[in-house]
Design a protein that fits this description.
DNA Polymerase III, Chain A, domain 2; 8-stranded antiparallel beta sheet; 3 domains; 371 residues; single chain; alpha+beta; 18% helix
Length: 371
């Protein structure tokens, strides 16, 4: 194999595909990047065994072939090269030579036939969603995906697609995050909804490589696998098996109290109060809602903090406490200027929604406080 291409294009591809590399791969071959060269283009592929990312771009192919090179080492090497054209040629079955201007390096190669085959999905339900919208949805739910492996299904995010809506739901036992996209979707005859649980790591890496434009990402799901194709990238992954929690049963049907306040004012006050809260034993923030005012406070052995913010209240007074980190995660992911919070009591969940519509919903469990 012998190819040459623009250094920055190669680096872009390597930065993209090496996101699939595992920190501790089970096999040495999974430390590598598969480079396939044919028909005037190269295809770069990395895999951890369950997640694969593939990048395609044009290249000058002098000799077709395939080779596996150390993924992270090759990426670091290309990153240090000067701008221009880089040439990669396989000298024999043991070494590949990388040349750029007056720089020359040799890398050990691995056998391409040992690299796991990445088959394209030919069947399954396919949906299309703008990349920027999908990226936005992911970014506002991933914080609520569980990291505790004791409940594996919660380490993923539920994707539900109906004929007019796609929604993502993540929950970790302390808070729930839901984002929606409203557009027509073509579903198979006889199906009103499809669903899949996507691993959290996969969603995180997908959001990092999606483009900030309205070109479509094609998603295909079938028999425990998912494939996303966009731009010159293909990502494929296994899906999580099992039943996701019936989140609809968690959502309150009505509320006794509704409160609204300037979101940034509340966020800044909680940021300040959390400085004291994290010095305490339970990282606790207290919120007291009264007509016209919201009082935010925290205390620890080293001192205390108390702030008042203007707020509108409809319904009963509420005194409630939250883990500071869980609360700030929710408020930071609310994209509106005004924060809308809904309550039933000091020990029931708080729900955050937009002023109008239902494009998102966040739920956070309070901390029971004994006076």
């Amino acid at each position: 194999m012998k190819i040459s291409m623009n250094t920055q294009d190669l680096l872009e591809g390597l930065n993209t595909v090496t996101r699939a590399l595992a920190a501790r791969p089970p096999k040495q071959i999974l430390e590598g990047v598969l480079i396939s060269a044919q028909d005037g283009r190269i295809v770069l592929t990395c895999s951890d065994g369950s997640l694969s990312i593939e990048y395609t771009n044009a290249a000058d192919i002098q000799e077709e072939g395939e080779v596996v090179l150390p993924g992270r080492l090759l990426t670091d090497l290309i990153r240090k090269l000067p701008a221009g054209t880089v040439e990669i040629s396989v000298m024999n079955q043991r070494l590949a030579q990388i040349r750029c201007q007056k720089t020359k390096s040799n890398l050990s190669v691995m056998r391409a036939d040992e690299f796991p085959e990445s088959k394209r999905m030919k069947a399954g339900t396919e949906i299309k969603i703008p990349q920027n919208k999908l990226k936005e949805m992911i970014s506002h739910v991933v914080f609520a995906i569980a990291t505790d492996e004791s409940r594996p299904i919660l380490t993923g995010c539920l994707l539900e697609v109906s004929r007019n809506e796609a929604r993502m739901v993540a929950l970790d036992g302390f808070r729930l995050a839901m984002q929606k996209a409203f557009q027509p979707f073509d579903l198979p005859d006889g199906k009103d909804m499809i669903s899949a649980v996507i691993p959290g790591k996969v969603l995180t890496e997908l959001s990092r490589i999606l483009q900030d434009d309205d070109s479509y990402c094609q998603m295909r799901m079938d028999q425990g696998r998912m494939e996303c194709v966009f731009s010159n990238i293909r990502l494929s992954s296994v899906l999580l098996a099992g039943e996701f929690i019936d989140y609809r049963r968690i959502l309150p049907a009505s509320f006794k109290t509704q409160a609204r306040a300037d979101r940034m004012a509340v966020q800044d006050a909680i940021d300040r109060a959390s400085l004291m809260a994290r010095e305490g034993k339970n990282n606790l923030i207290r919120m007291s809602f009264r007509p016209g005012v919201l009082k935010i406070s925290s205390n620890a052995e080293l001192g205390d903090v108390e702030e008042e913010i203007e707020a509108d209240l409809i319904g009963e007074n509420v005194d409630i406490a939250f883990n500071a980190r869980y609360l700030i995660d929710v408020i930071r992911n609310d994209t509106e200027d005004e924060l809308h919070m809904h309550f039933n009591s000091s020990v029931s969940p708080c729900v955050v929604t937009p002023k109008d519509g239902d494009s998102f919903l966040y739920l956070i469990l309070p901390v029971r406080v004994f006076q």
